[in-house]
C-alpha cells in the first residue's frame, strides 16, 4: 500500500497584475492506493489549483505545507520526478501538442516513467488493447495530441495514458466535463477497470455528481474557498446532488 499525504497546503497564484493571490488556505487530505476520493466544490473554489499543486505545475506558489508520497516530500521536486514517483494528472483542459502524435507521445511518456523504452511489439499490443477497451480506433495513434480532439476523445486519451503509465495515484480533474452520457459511461468504465487492475488511488475532482454514479467514492471532500468545508462518505455526494452548494456560499458574495 502507498499513501499520499497532503498537510496544511497553502498555495497562491500570481495575478496578471503581478500580485500574489492566496487560493488554497490549508488543505489536509490523506489518500491510500485502492481508495477513491471525490473532491467536490463550487467553481473557483481551488480544485484545479489543488490538482496542479500536487502534480508540480510551476505556476503555483507553494506558501506552506507538505505533499508526501510514502513519507517522501514531493513539493521540492519538479513535475517529472513526481510522475516517476507515481503521480498522474488528467487535466481539466488537456493541452494540444502540435506536431507530436499520440503514438510518439505515449511511448515517450512510458519511456520517461519507466526509465527504459518498452519493447515495441509488446507495447503496440498493449496500447491497441487498451484503445479497444476505450472504443478508440487505431487511427487515433497518428493524430497530434489533443489537436481537434472532441471532449470525449480528450478524456479517453487521458484514461489511455493512465492505463499505460500505471500510476500509484491518479488525479482526474473534471474528467466528466464535456462528455455526453455514452462517453461518460465508457470513460468511467475505463477508469474503474484501470483502477481495479492497478490498485490506483483516485482523486476524482468534480463539480457535478453525475460521474459519481459510475465511479463510486468511499470518501467525499468538499472544498470551498480553498478550505475543506465538509467531509463524509458517499451520502455527502447524494446530499450535494439534491441541495447543490448553496449552503456553503454567502448569498451576498460575488461568485466571479
Ligand atoms: P476550480 O477548479 O475549483 O474551479 P481553480 O483552482 O481553477 O478553481 O481556481 C481557483 C481560484 O483561483 C478562482 O477564483 C480563479 O479565478 C483563481 N485563479 C486561478 N489562477 C489564477 C491566476 N493566474 N490569476 C488570478 N486568479 C487565478
Ligand atoms: Mg472550475
Ligand atoms: Mg477546475
TrEMBL record:
Keyword ATP-binding annotated: yes
Gene3D superfamilies tied to this protein: P-loop containing nucleotide triphosphate hydrolases
InterPro entries: AAA+_ATPase (IPR003593), ABC_transporter-like_ATP-bd (IPR003439), FeS-cluster_ATPase_SufC (IPR010230), P-loop_NTPase (IPR027417)
CDD domains per record: ABC_FeS_Assembly (cd03217)
Entry keywords, A to Z: ATP-binding, Nucleotide-binding
Boundaries of every ABC transporter domain copy: 4-250
GO molecular function, one term: ATP hydrolysis activity
Record bears the keyword Nucleotide-binding: yes
Protein family membership: Belongs to the ABC transporter superfamily. Ycf16 family.
NCBIfam families (alphabetical): sufC
The protein, known as: Fe-S cluster assembly ATPase SufC
Species of provenance: Pseudoclavibacter caeni
Amino acid at each position: 500500500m502507498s499513501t499520499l499525504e497532503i498537510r496544511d497546503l497553502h498555495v497562491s497564484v500570481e495575478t496578471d497584475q503581478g500580485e500574489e493571490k492566496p487560493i488554497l488556505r490549508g488543505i489536509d487530505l490523506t489518500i491510500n492506493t485502492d481508495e477513491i476520493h471525490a473532491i467536490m466544490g463550487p467553481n473557483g473554489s481551488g480544485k484545479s489549483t489543488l490538482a496542479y499543486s500536487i502534480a508540480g505545475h510551476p505556476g503555483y506558489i507553494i506558501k506552506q505545507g507538505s505533499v508526501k508520497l510514502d513519507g517522501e516530500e514531493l513539493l521540492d521536486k519538479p513535475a517529472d520526478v513526481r510522475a516517476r514517483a507515481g503521480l498522474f494528472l488528467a487535466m481539466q483542459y488537456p493541452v494540444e501538442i502540435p506536431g507530436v502524435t499520440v503514438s510518439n507521445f505515449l511511448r515517450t511518456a512510458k519511456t520517461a516513467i519507466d526509465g527504459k523504452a518498452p519493447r515495441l511489439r509488446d507495447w503496440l499490443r498493449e496500447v491497441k488493447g487498451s484503445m479497444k477497451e476505450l472504443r478508440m480506433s487505431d487511427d487515433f495513434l497518428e493524430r497530434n495530441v489533443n489537436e481537434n480532439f472532441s471532449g470525449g476523445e480528450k478524456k479517453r486519451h487521458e484514461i489511455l495514458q493512465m492505463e499505460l503509465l500505471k500510476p500509484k495515484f491518479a488525479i482526474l480533474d473534471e474528467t466528466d466535463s464535456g462528455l455526453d452520457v455514452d462517453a461518460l459511461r465508457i470513460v468511467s468504465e475505463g477508469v474503474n477497470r484501470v483502477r481495479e487492475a492497478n490498485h490506483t488511488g483516485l482523486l476524482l475532482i468534480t463539480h457535478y455528481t453525475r460521474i459519481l454514479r459510475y465511479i463510486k467514492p468511499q470518501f467525499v471532500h468538499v472544498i470551498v474557498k480553498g478550505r475543506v468545508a465538509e467531509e463524509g462518505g458517499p451520502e455527502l455526494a447524494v446530499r450535494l446532488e439534491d441541495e447543490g452548494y448553496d449552503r456553503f456560499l454567502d448569498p451576498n458574495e460575488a461568485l466571479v
